[in-house]
Amino acid sequence: MATRGRKPKPTALKVLEGNPGRRPLNQNEPKPKGKKKLQCPSHLNAEAKKEWRRLSKVLIEMGVLTELDTAAFAGYCQAYARWKEAEEFIEKHGSLVKTPNGYFQQVPQVSIAQTNLKIMLKFAEQFGLTPSARSRIIAGENSKDSSDEMEQILGGDL
Question: What is the pTM for the complete model shown?
Answer without folding.
Answer: 0.69
